[in-house]
Amino acid sequence: MYKFLKRKSIPVKHCLGHYSLIISLNAIVVRTAGHQFMKTQVAIIGAGPSGLLLGRLLELQGIDNIIIETKSPDYVLSRIRAGVLEQGTQMLMREAQVGQRMDSEGHVHEGFALSFLGRLERIDIKALTGGKTVMVYGQTEVTKDLMDARNLSGATSFYEADEVTLHDFYSDKPSVSFLSNGQRLTVECDYIAGCDGFHGVARKSIPSEAIRLFERVYPFGWLGILSRTPPVSEELIYANHERGFALCSMRSSMLSRYYVQCSLDDKVENWSDQRFWDELRLRLPEAAAQSLITGPSIEKSIAPLRSFVAEPMQFGQLFLVGDAAHIVPPTGAKGLNLAASDVYTLYNILRKRYKENRLDLLTKYSEICLRRIWKAERFSWWMTSILHKFSDDAFNQRIQEAELDYYTSSLAGQTTVAENYVGLPYEAVE
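Request: output the structure for the sequence above.
Response:
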């Protein structure tokens, strides 16, 4: 269990009435009967990859931060998520000094394949983007690397926090209160980063009249399995088929991740391993289907798909980061990478605020982030639209096939796909 650590805390030996005081390098803690007050510069809600990455980058710049997470570390690490990292995400992991295992165990991919009409067309992303690539390295591994680094450094984290509540974020004295092991704690801070996901408390704390939500819910889901088998291909295969979409992915040379489009009303219990493998084969080109190695699933789940954006992403001293502000369908592997680009922007704004007293940059967070977010939303929507079966309309199927044929046979089309897939450049914070 990861526990709350006060880095080099120095207790004051005398008491002030019924108060006690602890002075720490990264927090000032005042205790009253049954209530503890702490001070920090940035309170981060959520210990997923975005919260941990932001906390790590700030910590390395000497910017104090506390992470507050409602789940246990084991629960956070158990979530099976995406595993394709853009170069920008890789860069941030290295800047956070947690990229060693990623660089030694991750798999660099120089392309991916689009399958339709029995064809398998490769998009050479490295050649089409001037040498850019992506890396397959699971989000669980990213989270573990960041969690281990934070625990090792002794930076302050609370897990299994209850009743997390945000206060006064439109003022210059925001705070976060919560219960930890039955004790009430309040963290007073300069800024709050809401990195707690789509269902988290950060976005729910914002008055409804202050935020605008954009959403598209797709009429299907992805049935995914994880198996200890070698992947069918060294690179990802995205398949369009009359029976529905399929994706062949991987986590390592002996851990494969496969998906097939299914109904939202479907149940995991309806899908035996054999039924899944049979359906996947039907949706793949013949050569890939014949070379597919199957085995028992070690995880199986159905995920719904949605596109979602909240505007703006800043509310006084509260900043929304990652899934708290936006969701993309997993087609195109943008979710984790969009969260990383939010972290890049907020980290640089806060770094310049504390190191250079650049207060003017604080109000630019939403503007900078949303430009990149909407472009990634467009690409994920487009990939989803041309690869999935929306109805039995044969006309629509032919339009999808014609669009795939154009984008894979045209150099301009291939370049557009490749540029978006490797990730659009980060916008400078200045």
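Residues 10-79+141-213+308-376 form a domain with the FAD/NAD(P)-binding domain fold (CATH 3.50.50.60).
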